[in-house]
Amino acid sequence: MSSIKFSIIIPVYNVEKYLNECVESVINQTYSNFEIILVDDGSTDSSPKICDSYVEKDNRIKVIHKKNGGLSSARNVGIKNMTGDYVLFLDSDDFWDDKSLLSSIDEVIRNYGSDVIILGYRKFYDEKRVYVNGYDTTTYEHGKTKAEQVKSLISNNLFESSAWSKIVNTKLFRDDRLFFTEGVYSEDIDWSARLLIYADSFYALSGYGLAYRQNSSSITHNIKKKNIEDLKNAIVKIVNFSAEIDDQDYYEWFMNYCSYQYITFLNCICSFRDSKQILSERKEMQKYVFLLNYHSNQKVKKVYFFHKIFGFKGMLIVLNLYLKLRG
């Protein structure tokens, strides 16, 4: 097999504080056959100049400057310009903390030829420069069939709805099947669901590869009505995808992915300050409470029992109290 080329797409928007650390973590990889696509999404700080400076230093780096269109728009521009065999999405405030990461991925591809490889991560708290373990993919057991592989991922809580945790064969982007939906929040949810539909094989890279930076400006700390609406629409969309699945075993594990997104929605509406604003969304999502029947995940199972004992309204009250007590 010839040398595998990786495309690393890094959307950039006003990240002058973190951009160097992010890009350097790729440049310093022991594996050298890659391209970095920096997509400047209309930054107004010094990020564009930092991007341009890297082009002068390394011919593996290309920069695309565009008007601000959001994260999905920037990723889509990167996809249209990538030339690699596999693609990785790296958020510009995160970084890789393993210099041999690409070498390890290359080894997995050569041994298994997987379409999608899951990347473990650690949470990184910037102010104290402290790491906290996110998920360690060493719990993954590689199965022979696609259903067995996805079962191992989902039952071990390793298949999150984040693009940055996945290495993807670029052949899957043919026919425009894996472009990101633009103009919405929670865009990674239906994108990851499409991966479950279209990819033929999965694997989880052992250990931690990415430092996932935590900060107070994260969307999870600032839930708005549009977040709720977009999350609701994403769940409806991915449940509809299930009609494309013929294999009953695989259908069950796909629905387990959907159920985890469902409890994310429930958590969000419990955390939303003005419940009257989201009455219609809550009412519509009550129709999807059947998703709790797919509860291989322990968090989903807990909410399932809340609903079984207290009903839908009571479940939300108990879940709200639980979230407050948990902090």
Task: Describe, in short, the structure shown.
The protein is an alpha/beta fold and 327 residues long. It is built from 10 helices and 11 strands. It has a 7-stranded mixed beta sheet, with helices on both faces. A 4-stranded mixed beta sheet has the order 5-11-7-8.
Give the topology:
Blueprint: E1 6-12, H1 19-27, E2 34-41, H2 47-57, E3 61-66, H3 71-81, E4 86-89, E5 95-96, H4 101-112, E6 116-118, E7 121-125, E8 130-135, H5 146-155, E9 166-169, H6 187-198, E10 202-204, E11 210-214, H7 225-241, H8 248-271, H9 279-286, H10 298-326
Parallel strand pairs: 1-2, 1-4, 2-3, 6-10, 7-11
Antiparallel strand pairs: 4-9, 5-11, 6-9, 7-8
Helix pairs in contact: 5-8, 6-7, 7-8, 8-10
Shape: globular
Q: Determine the strand fraction and express it as a percent band.
A: 15-25%
What is the arithmetic mean of pLDDT?
A: 93
Please bin the fraction of helical residues: 40-55%
- Rg over alpha carbons: 20 Å
Major sheet characteristics: 7 strands, mixed
**Record field, number of beta strands:** 11
User: Which CATH first-tier class of the largest domain would you pick?
Assistant: Alpha Beta
